[in-house]
Amino acid sequence: MQPRDVDESFLALPLSALTEAALTRAVDLGCEHADLRVERIRTQSISLRDARLEALADGEDLGLAVRVVHEGTWGFAAGVVLTAAEAVRLAEQAVAVAKVSAAVASDRVELAPEAPHEGSWVSAYEVDPFDVPDADKTTLLTELSERLMAADGVEHVQSGCMHVKEQKYYADTAGTRTRQQRVRISPEFTALTVDRSTGAFESMRTLAPPVGRGWEYLTDGRYDWDGELAQVPELLREKTKAPSVEPGRYDLVVDPSNLWLTIHESVGHATELDRALGYEAAYAGTSFATVDGLGSLRYGSELMHVTGDRTVEHGLSTIGWDDEGVEAQQWDIVRDGVLVGYQVDRNTARLGGMARSNGCAFADSPRHVPVQRMANVSLQPAPDGPDLDGLIGGVERGIYVVGDKSWSIDMQRYNFQFTGQRFHRIEGGKLAGQLRDVAYQATTTDFWGSMRAVGGPSTHRLGGAFNCGKAQPGQVAPVSHGCPAALFEGVTILNTVQEGGR
Amino acid sequence: MTHHSAQQLVEKALAASAADGCVVYVVESTEANLRWASNSLTTNGAMRSRQVVVVSFVDGGSGMATGTVARTGTPDVAALVAASEQAARDAGPAEDAVPLVSEAPPGAGDWDADPAETSIEVFADFAPALGAAFGAARDRGDLLFGYAEHSLTTTYLGTSTGLRLRTDQPAGRVELNGKSTDYSRSVWAGVGTRDFRDVSVADLAADVERKLGWSQRRVDLPAGRYETLLPPSAVSDLMIYAYWTMEARDADEGRNVYARKGGGNRIGDRLSELPLTLRSDPAAPGLETAPFQVVGSSSGSASVFDNGMATPAVDWISGGVLTNLIRPRAWALKTTAPAVAAVDNLLLEEPTATATQDEMVAATERGLLLTTLWYIREVDPQTLLLTGLTRDGVFLVEGGEVTGAVNNFRWNESPVDLLGRINEVGRTERTLPREWNDWFTRAAMPPVRVPDFNMSSVSPAS
Asked: Which Pfam family name is an example for this entry (chain B) (predicted)?
């Protein structure tokens, strides 16, 4: 594969002229820092209902933003007209916003230093989904959906694919000039069955995660779509006939298709320094993992090794440089079960006493100010750990949890409750049919403290989501989480029907 | 670059369209926001944006197909229209195809007027008042966190059937979160607004100060079922979820909580013994919203073919009985039921209720008084069982008075089931949803009493 460059049509925008206009004006107005972002984000969402196209929506968001630090206060302004005059106006408006804010701001903004960077970066993908004719895309999605629809017992199919191409130009007064382009894709197929006589209905979704790949994700055979779509109807049938779970404590083998989300909620968000410092206190929340616990907080069992990175190939949070011009990095967050690191941006790095940001600033659109967003936060497999059969084989009475579904966690990231796509009973080290109506509930440090075995590299996979929410105004960010399967002892299992009873 | 007005862009796009039908809308939006933490402003912004959306309708022989293309800024209109037509030609016949709307709805707006705008100046009085509240909090040893946002969105919608409709949507919200310096006590007050003229920082700060006072005494309680008073904000977050799920097609197909056992939907079923009305009304005072449909992308609850359709006031639940579900015209035709569009506000009322929240507290022997609900997610679609957390103030009421603050809980409850268990309803007032205010700010709800709210486990969070 030829190394790609950023699309010529993006590079042809008047990036240098906008930079010159915005940054010069900001410096003239006395700003100690100013940066300019120009972004073009192309999004396509295709949805099908019962294997029939329901909607095809194609959007493009093109705009620019100027962010300044003026006498220690942030100012931000964004617009959609790509002219030097507008760039000057935005620089002036950003300074005006900083002045209005100064009266009620007592914290002084200072950015951790970063050496200037100059360059281009393009994510790893083969086929740009926006180069594929819409008709080809809907034909393939329809064909895959029809296979599910045709299966015995499947009454409805909800399916679709979202793909995004994100292009960013960043320039700042320290001299950084970066151009980036990345592509991501999220196909999903859900089969539903309805029992009219009882009013019951059940669903089963494919486990294929959203990834930083192109359209080839659906066509090159590296992901086994045929195999998974063939299995879903039988798994759904088995689920509808499965017994309702007896609530209590069980040993859980959690598949990476479920565990990624538990990592996201209970480790990813809990180790964002802006949360620990209170910046998200009124909205996304704070964190139990406070700064005084860095280097000492017992997060989980000694088997727990969690890293943050913005570098893993096909990762949804992977970039070349972040939205403050900081180079992509990889670092430890939990080592031997102890909290050792946070995710930061340049201002929180300085507040946290760090010499350099680890590059977690991200804005989801040209309209929004960059905030600290999640790196790819991943649980490392045990190099000589067991395979899936080995993990299940070590459980006398337990449940194997597969696929994510419902999730909820409190504002300090203690108490969580998750469901899944399916729950298999484990008896005497063997799978023994599915269970229904299952949710697991725990407190973060108890749960990770109960991790008794971590799967080996053969169980590892990269999960993730397009839609992680944070900040006000609300922003969504894509992020991946790599993890192996792992065994947790004595986790509380609820019966969701009993929970809903009176 | 030539500057085109929104109206000119709509006309240009409609003129460029060679499709069998075309809907074009331009959304002009301006927004200003302030965010603060620990008695200091943190981030802020002033944004201006324009989105141009073209929906083309092409008769491919076997039925009408559609495609939607949206761009920001001042796009090349001819290219945009061509892309939208190509998308429609690629799409195959649409299941929701019906003739485009040609009758102008009431309240079509002043097409020729410029878009309404806001700016950072909307906070000219608010920001100094906030500064004063920071000072007072600092003096008390408390911390204030929160967010204020104002936006103005003007939508110009034109169709090849001759509609020229315009609507202005002002929206604003303020959230004020107060904490003790060790974060162990945390409370909240919030308000929705159209223009910030009715926002009193002093009132919000006084509410926060009162609740922080209530929190001085800490009481630990275990999980269990409690008599619980839900204030309007908490009720709104539950009812909004019940509303978002009110899709007629899903119900008719047996796949949501409004499906009837044995087939069909539950319209006509009594959901509450109390004469509760859950309704939406584009003209509701203080909660005004668009009186017609603007749809970029079809789903089970909205159709691009219905662009421009009037969205009159609708009762979802009337006198405790489920009376309407959201139904695009195509599904209405298929099921010989009325077309009913979603409206972007929600009100729950009990017409005879007079009690204020304070009066309901005074009438409580022992129970919990909540403040807000958080991180609400669907656990079981069949019963609409939701899970979530209590947040920023669970207060113990004993002998008609608040006697302390209780730990938070994870709860598991269905809003539809709750409707049948609410045993007292107070007076409806405008409120700000906590969980959903990124998407939904126009709500009026009463405080309600539930005899047995399911607090599933304790959350140590504050």
From this structure: PmbA_TldD_3rd
A439 close contact with B: CB closer than 8 A: yes
Cα four-point dihedral sign B6, B7, B8, B9: positive
Q: For residue range B343-370, what is the model confidence (pLDDT) as tens digits?
A: 999 999 999 999 999 999 999 999 999 9
Average pLDDT rounded to a whole number, residues B223-252? 98
Q: Which of B41, B92, B188 is the closest to A104 by Cβ?
A: B41
Residues of A (364-393) whose Cβ lies below 8 Å from B:
367-369, 371
Tell me, what CATH number does A47's domain have? 3.30.2290.10
Which residues on chain B are in Cβ contact (under 8 Å) with A370?
Answer: none
Judge if A341 and A439 occupy the same domain: yes
- Residue B1 pLDDT class (50, 70, 90 cuts): very low
Domain membership of residue A143 (yes or no) is yes
Q: Are residues A142 and A67 in the same domain?
A: yes
- Asked, for residue A2, whether it belongs to a domain, the answer is no
As to burial, measured by CB atoms within 10 angstroms (0-12 exposed, 13-18 middle, 19+ buried), residue A30 is exposed
The ipTM estimated for the assembled molecules is 0.95
Token duo for residue B414? 């269905």
The structure's pTM equals: 0.97
DSSP B69: E
Percent over 90 (pLDDT), chain A: 96
Chain B residues with CB under 8 Å of A155 CB are 253-254
What are the pLDDT digits (tens) for B156-198? 999 999 999 999 999 999 999 999 999 999 999 999 999 999 9
Q: What is the pLDDT of residues B57-101, one digit of tens each?
A: 999 788 999 999 999 988 999 999 999 999 999 888 999 999 999
Residue A490 counted as domain residue: yes
Q: Is B368 within 8 Å of B226 (Cβ atoms)?
A: yes
Query: In this complex, is the C-beta atom of B114 within 8 Å of any C-beta atom belonging to chain A?
Result: no
**Cβ <8 Å between A502 and B452:** yes
Domain boundary among A193, A226, A241: A241
In a domain, A421, yes or no: yes
Residues A170 and A211 occupy one common structural domain: yes
CA distance A10 to A38: 10
Please, which residues have CB within 8 angstroms of residue A198's CB and are 6 or more apart in sequence?
Answer: B261
